[in-house]
Specification:
This protein is an alpha/beta fold. It has a domain at 5-128 and 197-232: Rossmann fold, CATH 3.40.50. The protein is 47% helix and 12% strand. It has 11 helices and 7 strands. It has helices spanning 32-39, 47-55, 67-80, 85-90, 107-117, 130-140, 154-161, 167-174, 179-195, 199-205, 221-234, and strands at residues 5-6, 14-15, 21-25, 93-94, 100-105, 121-127, 211-215. The strands form 2 sheets. The chain has a 4-stranded parallel beta sheet, with helices on both faces. Helix 1 crosses helix 11. The radius of gyration is 18 Å and the shape is globular.
């Protein structure tokens, strides 16, 4: 169930920084939404909703827009507000609950900001290789996962894959879907990696007392949910 959230004080709402949070961290395709569903916790509006409401309008953009344009505008937002979406969270007000879930943060700067400014937040980081995320994007057929791919971009994207996928991984992806579809999804994975180094949050959260790092390739969603519940139970947040 999604709870009320606002950037303005309102009756019945309290500052988000005063509410215990479970923040999911990870890039597109690691399984954050699946984990959120399995946990069944009351939720704040997710990252996509906060960007749609509070970031894109700042630059005159109205969703839906291609993912690469979202990356450009959220990058522009981080130039003004280095904490990115974590700064939106910090400024917000929400219904008080024993525990709220937020899906999710990306990148070292957002996670560092949240660690510093949201003292009641705990973090569950899901990590997976780029090929795994690409394959999941190809499988899920979400209209949100659209990127424009012009014919002249194909050569550039194939070159870009060299820094993201091995040749064998690219061939594997090309066996799963038409070239145009693979290129569109690869563009998302590559642009996201460029904008949010996946190693940054790992450096911050691996071994941190407020964080749990999950191997999103080696664990099933059910096993991830059990691990998160155990993590929360140790801290007295769930029974």
């Amino acid at each position: 169930m999604e709870v009320a959230f606002s950037l303005e004080p309102a009756s019945g709402l309290v500052p988000v920084r005063e509410v215990p949070l479970l923040v999911l961290v990870g890039l597109t395709g690691v399984g954050k939404s699946t984990l959120a569903e399995a946990l069944g916790l009351p939720r704040l509006p997710d990252r996509r909703a906060l960007v749609d409401r509070y970031v894109l309008p700042r630059y005159g953009a109205t969703p839906p827009i291609p993912r690469e344009e979202r990356f450009r505008l959220t990058g522009r937002f981080r130039e003004e507000f280095p904490g990115g979406v974590a700064e939106v969270l910090l400024r917000g007000y929400a219904e008080p609950r024993p525990l709220l879930l937020f899906d999710g943060l990306r990148g070292e700067a957002e996670v560092a900001y949240a660690l510093a400014h949201l003292p009641q937040a705990l973090f569950a980081l899901l990590h997976a290789r780029e090929i795994t995320r690409l394959k999941r994007l190809l499988a899920r057929q979400d209209a949100f996962d659209r990127a424009r791919v012009a014919p002249e971009e194909e050569a550039r994207l194939k070159a870009l894959a060299q820094g993201v996928l091995t040749e064998e991984e690219l061939l594997e992806a090309l066996s799963l879907a038409p070239l145009e579809e693979v290129l569109a999804k690869l563009k998302i994975v590559a642009e996201e990696k460029k904008n949010y180094d996946p190693e940054g949050p790992l450096r911050l959260l691996r071994g941190h007392p407020r964080a749990l790092v999950l191997d999103a390739e080696g664990l099933t969603p059910e096993a991830e949910a059990r691990a998160v519940r155990a993590f929360l139970r140790e801290r007295g947040l769930v029974e």
